Amino acid sequence: MAHENREFVVKIAILTDAYNLPLWKIRIIEKLRSNKALKLSLLKIDSVKKRQYPLFWVYEALDYLLFSKTGKFKETTSEKDSQQKLNINTITPEIPTANPNSEVYDLLIDLSSTHDKSFYKQLSKITKKGICFFSIGYKPGSYPEFFYEMFSGEPVIAIRLNITDGERQRTLYRSYSGVYNFSLYLNKNKNCWKMSDFVNRSLTEIRDFQGFNDKDKQFSYGIQDSPAPSIMQQLKFIYITLSNLINLKLLNTKCRQQWFLAYERTDKAERTKEFLSTNSSNFRIITPPADKFFADPFIITEKGKTYVFFEEFIYPKGKGVISYLEIDEKGRETQSKVVLERDYHLSYPFVFKHEDKYYMIPETLGNKTIELYKAVDFPGKWELQKILFNNVNAVDTSLISYKGKFWLFTCMSDWGNGLSDELFIFYSDTLFGKWQPHPKNPVISDTKTARPAGKPFFQGNALIRPSQENSVRYGYALNFNRVDVLNEYDYKETLIKTIKPEFIEDNLAIHTFNSNKFYNVIDGMKLIKK
To answer: 86, 310, 366, 516: which could form a disulfide with 344 (CB 3.0–4.6 Å)?
Structure first.
């Protein structure tokens, strides 16, 4: 996250072609305005006439009626409408109007809909560093946005904050999101809220930016550079999207997702060769009753007994509880027992030992907290020890003690959606102390690798962080990432292995891995009839 630096005082002009701006752009301006190291001005420019898409506009109106916060399927989205308009003068009346004829600005930020090469070349005369603008997808500058990714069936879309002088460009910030194949509104809404953080996160890099060089790409696109979708392409898009929606609704009517647990016996020598075998015959599968699913297994061996803690989701109640089962000496599991239940949903029971006592950090997104529990009678009785974070949207929190500090990994989202996209790290000298945010938060902004999938562990001298691959679907595959740098200033990791779910028959997902010297435990997901 960007930190204020009083030596970093820059003059920024915000380009806009309207005073009524969507909320996600208003949020950008408000974040910049709160930084006293920045001096803001507004530069009103002439609007560019957009291409006409009457057929597509009909689809967009229908899509909005279905998926907005007031729509028929409003449960699909959890955030405000990013496209809702507000007059900028009612929010930021004190920001002066820029004068391009008499002033030169350190930076221009384009919140208009232009993105035109010749226009940016003209503006480069009044800026020292360049013009920042957003690009979406693999055909940046095209309109409608997200059209080509949905039309082509792409599972992931790239969104970027770039800087240009009208000739060359450089990407300052990049993020990857999964694509909803049934709703353009959901794609636009989630990603516009995400983009509203990009400028603030890039302030340090903007401060250090010394200009363009030969390695920077040529700026070669604009709003007129991408061919408009033809009438036939628009019709095909609408057909594909509505077909995906109908198929999804029919599937949800007939079937439900059922997560299950699986475990294999292993030993330390075997695990140094492979994290996990992909031979289904090695695994014993624990199938839950039809009205439940089991997910997020964590394994603990204590006093010769092996316990698996997991999320037990009860469909009639619509929420999860934390349960455990025991694996006996013959490798057979016992009946599960509930050990923790709240009024809100619980999952991902991150169980660990600290100073000879057991603790648990379950996912408590439904309470907008990160909570720490202590075992008062292990394994069956737990009590709340401390609320580590309040008023946060956080999922799958994982912890490790490393180089004299505690490091907390979690996926977060200010706007309540896109919770698989961005990994945040916090650190503390003690488990119960104050948690400091990592200066590079979010350290990962990529739905393919961000979200935690189990306890970080060591393989030899290498620290390995399991994570989820969420591009194809939620929890699709399991990643193993080698942590190359982890300190108070930097974080780097390298993806070294991905395991897909198909090695178990009819399995569609695998999104948790944990192990000890006796067992590897995972989860999986199949479709069952309602």
So the answer is: 366
